[in-house]
Amino acid sequence: MIDHRPRVHLRPVAGWTNDPIGPVHWAGRTHLFHQVNPDGGYWDRPHWGHVSSDDLVRWRRHPLALSPDPDPDAADADGCFSGCVVVDGDEAVLVYTGVNGPAGPGQTQASCLARSREPELERWTKDPANPVTVAPRGHDLTGFRDPFVWREDGRWWQLVGTGSAERGGAAWLFSSDDLTTWSDEGPALDAATLVTRDGLQTWTGSMWECPALVRTPQGDALILSVHDGVTTHHPIAVLGTFTGGRFVGRRIQRLDLGPDVYAPCLYTAPDGRLIIWGWSWEATTVARQRTQGWAGMLTLPRELTIDADRVAVRPIEEFTGLRGDELSVERLATPGGWLTGAEVARAGNVVDLEVALGPAAEVVSLRLCRAPDLQEYTTLEVDRHRGELWLDRAASSLDPDAGVGRVGGAIHPSPGRELRLRIVIDRSIVEVFVDDRISLTARIYPTRADSTGIEVVGSPTAVADVELQAWNLDSIWSAS
Ligand code: FRU
Asked: Residue 464, SS3?
């Protein structure tokens, strides 16, 4: 059986993981946390897992940072849901969602605090005053979770993800002088007041999870994850302006064109760069995830910028530090185009590709993770004429439990210019970046050890104008 566990994507050794959370720079290292169920490959009673790095490339695993309280009356008896970490003087303060009670109307979700002063951030002391922020009454809110805290104008601000069946998703704002006592400032934004510049209402579910406020000189954005009360959907960015405690939205953008990414969290690096990680779930059955004993990973760290009223993402520069020697790309003719030679194939399914499509390569497909007899392959179609990118998983896997379907959308190519694709394949995840702007994340599950070829398919003039470079990638784990 092929091992689908990634080599360059963060995840715990075993068990379930979902949202990345709480990135913080502390004592010279970047610490990142994530939702985890250490007991198996299924979601249950979330804990906070913990990793850290001194270069954002190689990572170390730490023990669990936070676990649900054994006291059944505690605010977090049934889960330490998502949140963030802020630095307050000489203390790191973890702001998380404490959950009490089984899922349903009687359950409470409320913001709680835990503090640490340790260089390694391995021991956290929960605040006896927990919970510090509870859901405002009288609004029939469907959930109240994932606090995002920042400091501005001498005060602490907290946005909490929430929503109601009537008004849709909302990001509710609170303010505080001391992180403990919070005043209700009302919704910074809710779906009912979110009318985009062209007057269109875009469907954004009935609950927003994991809000994060992006502030840049080029404009502001609210990153939200769309939930409809039953199902998790996809992350969006609302571009607009945050002022006077209200977010005025101008346009809504899907943050990723793929089906398998959710709940991105935001990190402001010491050099000012904005970096996000997302959660990439499995595209297999729940039963399969339980049997294999693990599920979920975090996406690559992506630098986020706002450019021309759009959010752009690309892998952080440092990621190239994992590259081994460049692989030689020998072109072998196929009926549809050309196939890379043995060296790229030998790199297996952990490979970093740069593909340059010249002006003649207007419509081209790449068959990734391709078996020599075409029993398995994943198609990536670039159509610059229509301005679209699509990923098709119809033939990705012989496993009937693996996700299928064609996903993609508009890529807004610049006419007449070269188009650049960056493709990172890591066993069961494919992350595609178009011109350092647009991402597409999908999970695939090749079953054969020889499903490793890369074929370029198109008209003879189109495929002749495609350049491909490839590198294999070292593991991200420095001490395990
Ligand atoms: C998003 C989410 C959050 C919640 C966490 C629980 O994926 O549902 O809203 O805090 O996961 O694990």
From this structure: helix
Q: Per-residue b/e over 261-282, b at no fewer than 16 CB within 10 Å?
A: bbbbbbbeeeeeebbbbbbbbb
CB distance 282 to 289 below 8 Å: yes
Q: Identify the DSSP state of 186.
A: E
Are 164 and 140 in contact by the 8 Å Cβ rule? The answer is yes
Shortest-distance atom of ligand 1 to CA 232? 7
pLDDT digits (tens, 9 = 90+) for 290-310: 999 999 999 999 999 998 889
Tokens of 336: 């549809």
**Measured from the CB, is residue 280 less than 6 Å from ligand 1?**
no
CA of 327 to the centre of ligand 1 (A): 40
Is residue 16 within 8 Å of residue 37, measured between CB atoms?
A: yes
Whole-prediction pTM: 0.97
Task: Out of 16, 66, 78, 82, give the residue to mutate to test ligand 1, the one with the largest number of ligand atoms within 8 Å of its CB.
Answer: 82
pLDDT digits 0-9 by tens, 208-254: 999 999 999 999 999 999 999 788 999 999 999 999 999 999 899 99
Q: Using the atom order of ligand 1, give the atom closest to the CA of residue 35.
A: 12
The answer to whether the peptide bond before residue 131 is cis (omega within 30 degrees of 0) is yes
Looking from the CA of 465 toward its CB, the CA atoms found within 13 Å total: 17
The rounded Å distance from CA 47 to ligand 1 centre is 11
* Beta strands 60-66 and 80-88, pairing class: unpaired
